[in-house]
Amino acid sequence: MKPFACKKPFAFFPIAVGVLVAMLSAHPAHAAENGAPPPNRFAATIAPAERFEVDGVLVEQHGKPGSRGRPLVLVPGLATGGWVWQETVRAFSPDHVVYVLTLPGFDGRPPAPANAFASARAAVEKLLEQRHLDKPVIVGHSLGATLALAVAEDMPARVGGVVAIDGLPVMPGTDTLPQAERARYAQGMKARMGGLNPSVFAAQQQGYMRTIGVLDMGKADDVALLTGRSDPASVGQYAADVVELDLRPGLNKIQAPVLVIAPFFDADGAQQGLTADAKAGYYRSLMQGAPKVEVTTVAPARHFAMIDQPQQVNDAIRKYLGSL
Predict the structure, then answer these.
(1) Quick one: DSSP state of residue 249?
(2) CA 168 to CA 123: how far, in whole Å?
(3) Tens-place pLDDT, residues 102-139
C-alpha cells in the first residue's frame, strides 16, 4: 500500500498514514531477556467507584458525585483501554467526577459493531444524557479526540469543553484527498487489519509503540502488551471509519472552547523536516471553523503524550479548565 502523496506526511495516529501496517510488520516482538519480564506498569489500574456499560462501552467512574469541578469524560485512542489515563485520573479525581471509557473491541472487550465509530459516538452522547452531566469536558486521545469533537458538534449546548490530544477532525495527511480516494484507502486498510492473527497484531503494536507511540522503550513495550489484547478486526474498523470521516464542515457548531495538544519530539520532527511551530500551525489549520481553539505543544513527546509527559499534559488540562 502506497503512502499518501501529501506535503504534510504526518503519522501521529495509531492508524498511521499509508505505510503503517507494512512498517509495523518489520518490527517483531522482542523476547523477554533474563527470564520473566517485570510487572507491566500500566496493568494495575485504579479501582473505580463504579463500573457500568453504555451500549457496549465500558465506563469506569472515579471521584465523588457533587465534586466542585466539571465532570470529565476521558476517551482513549485506538486499541487502548482506560489504563492509559491513570495519571490523569490521579490528578483530577479529587476535584472532579471522572468517567473513563473503553470502547468495544479494545483491551479485550467484545468486538465492535460494523458501524464502530458511529456506535461509539451515540454511546458517549447517551452517557452524557443518562448521567445528566452538566457541561462536561471531554478529553480524548487520537481516535478518542476525534470522537470528542464529533460529540461536541452533535451536542453543542451540552458539551462544556473538548481537550483533543493528538486527534483532529480529519486524519492528518488526508485533508486534501478526494472522499472517494480516502474511502478506497480506508477499506483496503480495514481488510488488511482484519486479516491479522493475534500474534502478528501484537508484534505490530510493539513496533508502532517503539517508533511512533512512546519515547521510553520500556513503556512502549508495556503499552504494546496491553494494546495487543485488542481485536484486530475492530481496530481496522475504527481506523477505516476515522480515515473516511471529515468533521471539518461541522466545526462551526461547536460552542465550547477546544484545546488541542500537539506532542512533538525533535528527532522525529527532523526526519520529517518539521518544527514544533509548523506542526502546531498545521493542526490549527485543520481546526478552522471552530470558534474557540487553542493549540499547545507538549515536548518531548510522541503520540501518547500523557504517557511521555503526564505532568505537562495535566498542567495544560488544568490551565484550560481554569479558563472555562
Answers:
(1) G
(2) 20
(3) 999 999 999 999 999 999 999 999 999 999 999 999 99
Inter-residue contact 42 to 230 (CB < 8 Å): no
Specify the CATH number for the domain of residue 188: 3.40.50.1820
Tell me the β-bridge partners of 170: 246
Prediction pTM value: 0.90
Would you say residue 285 lies in a domain? yes
Residue corresponding to grid cell 482506560: 82
Give the CA-trace dihedral at 187, 190, 194, 196, to 10 degrees. Answer: 110
Q: Is 14 part of any domain?
A: no
**Distance of alpha carbon 148 from alpha carbon 74, whole angstroms:** 9
How many Cβ atoms are within 10 Å of 271's Cβ, its own excluded?
A: 9
Q: Could you tell me the residue range of the domain that residue 240 belongs to? A: 46-323
The answer to whether residue 199 is domain-embedded is: yes
In a domain, 10, yes or no: no
Q: What is the pLDDT of residues 274-318, one digit of tens each?
A: 999 999 999 999 999 999 999 999 999 999 999 999 999 999 999
Structural domain count of the chain = 1
